[in-house]
Design brief:
A hairpin with a 4-residue loop joins strand 20 and strand 21. Strands 3-2-1-7-19 form a 5-stranded parallel beta sheet, with helices on one face. Strands 9-16-10-11-12 form a 5-stranded parallel beta sheet, covered by helices on one side. A 5-stranded antiparallel beta sheet has the order 22-23-26-25-24. The relative contact order is 0.12. Helix 2 runs parallel beside helix 6. The N terminus is likely disordered. It folds into 3 domains: 189 residues, 3-Layer(bba) Sandwich (FAD/NAD(P)-binding domain), CATH 3.50.50.60; 118 residues, 3-Layer(bba) Sandwich (FAD/NAD(P)-binding domain); 77 residues, Enolase-like, domain 1 (2-Layer Sandwich), CATH 3.30.390.30. The protein is α/β, with parallel strands linked by helices and 410 residues long. It has 8 helices and 26 strands. Bound molecules: flavin-adenine dinucleotide (FAD). The site of flavin-adenine dinucleotide has 36 residues, from helix 2, strand 2 and strand 22. It comes from Streptomyces clavifer. This is NADPH-dependent 2,4-dienoyl-CoA reductase/sulfur reductase-like enzyme. Keywords: FAD, Flavoprotein, Oxidoreductase. Its cofactor is FAD.
């Protein structure tokens, strides 16, 4: 049986798959291997001590105490997946096909890197009491009492995490000031005209958004800006981005990019034999978009593992070239995005951004390449399929919010 053949090494010993990182991408890899019929040993190693959990609820229900945790509903024992939690992998010796850990070497036949990303630290803020990051369950648990005590909070960074944290902190009754170095929220992600209505959401929620504001230093109780202003801060939450957690791979021979990502190929294989990379730690070349993508969103940590698991299970590499998708819940709105708008030549509005629900479509040479939907999930669902299909659309019909997006196809 082909299943048997691919589960075994040449010497008939079952191939051992080891996955490093027990977040979304690591767990999905292990589960997808079983779904694909891989019957050999699968070991999932994670540095955090907690049962593997999902991150999006950390800045939403978990932060507000509406959910205790967000553990994945996966029966690892029933799937015969060996979990090794609270174990930090410190090195990779590719020639020996071994990982280094404080509990001794771990051998592998196939290795999947799924170590995710680490939040960037605001220089000079390390060790200052009251300064927080929001990446882990422990971070969210440390932040819950901050919200409960209704501290004056300063959020550094008006990105996705900053917006979601601000939403939760306002809901909890905190006074919130958001300090953003760029001239608008989400400056690295969205064009100015699309981000402009989002800036208004901060004010509407009662949060103060200071744009063009740079942090000079953080002291207990205050954030000092470079223009001399001091903002009182019972707590400071830093949300200024994340970087692939790949420091432990230095010297291993795995190729890394300038952004710290494992530079995987179009099938998510790394520069070393028998080693794949998935999720937030890996970038991949997209033929669809003609550039290398590093995607830090949940859907990428679901789809990439499926491609890798299929390849490991039957030995046939799968090309991974997704249409990226993500969502965010902020200021009472459901924001969704599919595609990649770099290189678009036309931007269309469907609806009025002053209203509760609206959509933006990006076109390139008449083809829909990206969709951002605020409170219009049907636009997103239809738009995502059209982006995947490379559909040409009629810009006049697409700009009419009463016309279903799929009816605008030429
Ligand atoms: C607060 C928050 C809210 C989010 N909300 C959304 C959202 O609404 N929508 C959306 O699309 N995306 C969201 N995301 C992004 C999404 O959660 C990530 O893209 C996804 O978690 C990536 O999964 P991953 O498995 O690649 O990485 P991670 O989830 O970071 O998991 C990696 C794991 O590897 C472990 N690890 C790292 N190094 C080692 C090592 N050397 N040895 C052993 N283990 C190691 C880490 O401890 C970690 O547990 C959010 C992220 C955060 C932090």
């Amino acid at each position: 049986m082909s299943e048997q053949r691919w589960d075994r090494t040449a010497g008939e010993r079952p191939r051992r798959v080891v996955v490093v990182g027990a977040g979304m991408a690591g767990v999905q890899t292990a589960v997808a291997l079983r779904e694909q019929g891989f019957a050999g040993p699968v070991t999932l190693i994670g540095a955090e001590p907690h049962q593997p959990y999902d991150r999006p609820p950390l800045s939403k229900a978990v932060l507000l105490g509406k959910a205790e945790d967000s553990a994945f509903d996966v029966d690892f024992e029933a799937l015969d997946i060996t979990l090794r939690l609270g174990l930090d992998v410190t090195g990779l010796r590719a020639a020996a096909h071994e990982l280094d850990t404080p509990e001794g070497p771990v051998p592998y036949d196939v290795l999947v890197l799924a170590t995710g990303a680490e939040p960037l630290v605001l220089p000079g803020s390390e060790g200052v009491p009251g300064v927080h990051l929001l990446r882990t369950l422990d971070d969210a648990e440390r932040l819950r009492p901050v919200l409960e005590r209704q501290h004056d909070v300063v959020v550094v960074g008006a990105g996705w995490i900053g917006a979601e944290f601000t939403t939760a902190a306002r809901a909890a009754g905190c006074a919130v000031t958001v300090v953003e170095a760029a001239g608008r929220p989400l400056a690295g992600t969205l064009p100015a005209e699309v981000a402009a209505p989002m800036a208004a959401w901060y004010a509407e929620s009662g949060a103060a958004l200071l744009t063009g504001a740079r942090v000079a230093r953080v002291e207990p109780g205050a954030v000092h800006l470079t223009d001399g202003r001091a903002v009182p801060a019972g707590a400071v939450i830093v949300g200024i981005g994340a970087r692939p957690a790949t420091g432990w791979l230095a010297g291993s021979g795995i190729a890394l990019g300038p952004d710290g990502s494992v530079t995987a190929d179009s099938s998510l294989r790394t520069s070393l034999p028998d080693v794949y990379a998935v999720g937030d730690c890996a970038s991949f070349p997209s033929a669809r978009y003609g550039e290398r993508l590093l995607v830090h969103h949940w859907d990428n940590a679901l789809q990439g593992p499926r491609a890798v698991a299929a390849a490991v299970a039957d030995g046939l590499p799968r090309t991974y070239d997704p249409v990226p998708y993500f969502w965010s819940e902020q200021f009472g709105r459901f924001v969704q995005y599919a595609g990649h708008h770099a290189g678009a030549d036309t931007l269309l509005w469907r609806g009025d951004p002053a209203e509760a629900a609206w959509t933006v479509c990006w076109l390139r040479a008449g083809v829909l390449v990206a969709v951002l939907a605020v409170g219009r999930p049907r636009d997103l669902a239809q738009g995502r399929k059209l982006v995947e299909a490379g559909a040409r659309i009629d810009p006049v019909r697409a700009a009419d919010p009463s016309v279903p997006l799929r009816s605008a196809v030429l």
